[in-house]
Write a structure and sequence with these properties.
Layout lengths: L3 E10 L2 E11 L4 E5 L6 H9 L6 E6 L2 E2 L8 E4 L11 H6 L7 H10 L15 H13 L5 E5 L7 H18 L3 E5 L2 H7 L2 E4 L9 E4 L6
Helix pairs in contact: 4-5
The structure holds adenosine-5'-diphosphate (2 copies).
The site of one adenosine-5'-diphosphate has 11 residues, from strand 2 and helix 1.
Protein name: Sulfonate transport system ATP-binding protein
InterPro entries: AAA+_ATPase, ABC_transporter-like_ATP-bd, ABC_transporter-like_CS, ABC_transporter_ATP-bind, P-loop_NTPase
Organism: Natronobacterium texcoconense
Length: about 220
């Protein structure tokens, strides 16, 4: 069973067709990026995969389970903004929703995103890149079947962005999660992923899947 299987996915908001005829299969441990212009349905796709979007046509399964029936810990999510609790520490932010998590496990996650020594810091004391790594640790906390990232680097300055992209590749090498990352940045998409999926803006058109040969640093 693949980590993610989408077939014939169609989602409309009234007259507005956000997604149509989307087919996509992602294997365990694969890193896929989804690119496309603004309004092509990237955010809608991620909302469907998180199970937040209950009404759609077609099929979307995470490890064989319909996204509408899966538990919330099947999918981890990282947003464009880190969305951290400002009054909570790094450790507390990572542990949000992790019921009964022991400190050792949380500290391990903090360490995995390179924030040793910052366990008790608050978001206001962190740089943008560090805050986004806290969000990454939180997204990985449940050991989700699928990690979704929605434009995770778009709000960062260029240098920090490159740093964080390489950091994500390191984390990926170590933990081998299955990743679907959505971005409007074609270069970023090609740099990060094993496979780039282009979502067309025109309703009714079929998505094109292109394979890219990615040079590694
Ligand atoms: P992207 O993330 O690629 O910019 P979106 O998934 O946000 O695209 O939007 C896809 C299309 O669906 C757009 O035409 C958008 O206006 C429309 N859309 C998205 N969410 C809603 C909603 N909640 N209600 C109505 N239309 C929506
Ligand atoms: P992004 O480009 O980052 O996907 P959007 O501005 O498209 O962000 O969407 C932000 C929010 O507004 C989303 O929750 C989306 O569902 C909602 N939205 C987008 N387009 C519409 C629309 N035409 N009508 C109602 N809600 C919309």
């Amino acid at each position: 069973v693949p980590a993610l299987e989408i077939s014939g996915l169609r989602k409309a908001y009234g007259e507005t067709v956000a997604l149509t005829d989307v087919d996509l299969t992602v294997d365990h441990g694969e890193f896929v990026t989804v690119v496309g212009p603004s309004g092509c349905g990237k955010s809608t796709l991620l909302r469907v995969l998180t199970g937040l979007e209950e009404s759609f046509e077609g099929c979307a399964e995470v490890s064989g389970t319909d996204v509408r029936e899966g538990g919330s810990d099947d999918v981890g999510m990282v947003f464009q903004e880190p969305r951290l609790l400002p009054w909570a520490t790094v450790r507390e932010n990572v542990a949000v929703g992790l019921e009964g998590a022991d400190d050792r496990r949380v500290d391990e996650l903090v360490s995995q995103v390179g924030l040793d020594g910052f366990e008790d810091a608050r978001p206001g004391e962190l740089s943008g890149g560090m805050a986004q790594r806290v969000a990454l640790a939180r997204g990985l906390a449940y050991e989700p079947e699928l990690l979704l990232l929605d434009e995770p680097f778009s709000a960062l300055d260029a240098l920090t962005k490159y740093e964080q992209q390489d950091f994500l590749l390191e984390v990926r090498k170590r933990l081998e999660p299955t990743i679907v990352l959505v971005t409007h940045d074609v270069e970023e998409a090609a740099y990060l992923a094993d496979r780039v999926v282009v979502l067309d803006a025109q309703p009714g058109s079929v998505e094109r899947v292109i394979d890219v040969d990615v040079p590694r640093p």
